[in-house]
């Protein structure tokens, strides 16, 4: 076993990058749609996005077990829990009138956990012979 501490800064960059990208996408979408900025609580959006990544911790621990099928099962289960959390806590709080804008504000926070879970699985927990 050889530790690669460069992966820690990469993992942190992925998390913080996505946590910053979601509100930027939301604000940009609101600006182009001409909607009120007050129609979305950005603090809650960031908190929901951050808390939605909580299943990544037990999934990362389960990915230490060297069985590929168990790793994928853990990643998919964690991703499902994460997406259900985002859907439950975010969809009802977005009050915009434009259909494409509501869709953008719901989908952009859902892209983050999908990307994080699959990047972690493929990049950090791939079996190397």
UniProtKB/TrEMBL annotation:
GO terms, biological process: vesicle-mediated transport
One GO molecular-function entry: small GTPase binding
Top-level taxon: Eukaryota
Transmembrane segments annotated in the record for this chain: 7-30, 42-65, 72-88, 100-120
Keywords: Membrane, Transmembrane, Transmembrane helix
Gene Ontology cellular-component annotations: Golgi apparatus
Name the UniProt record assigns to this protein: Protein YIPF
């Amino acid at each position: 076993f050889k530790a690669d501490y460069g992966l820690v800064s990469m993992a942190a960059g992925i998390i913080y990058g996505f946590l910053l990208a979601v509100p930027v996408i939301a604000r940009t979408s609101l600006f182009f749609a001409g909607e009120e900025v007050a129609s979305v609580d950005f603090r809650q959006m960031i908190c929901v996005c951050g808390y939605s990544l909580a299943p990544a911790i037990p999934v990362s621990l389960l990915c230490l077990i060297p069985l590929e099928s168990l790793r994928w099962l853990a990643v998919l289960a964690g991703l499902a829990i994460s997406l259900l959390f985002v859907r439950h806590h975010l969809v009802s709080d977005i009050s915009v009138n434009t259909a494409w804008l509501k869709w953008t504000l719901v989908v952009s926070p859902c892209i983050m956990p999908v990307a994080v879970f699959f990047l972690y699985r493929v990049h950090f927990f791939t079996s190397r012979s």
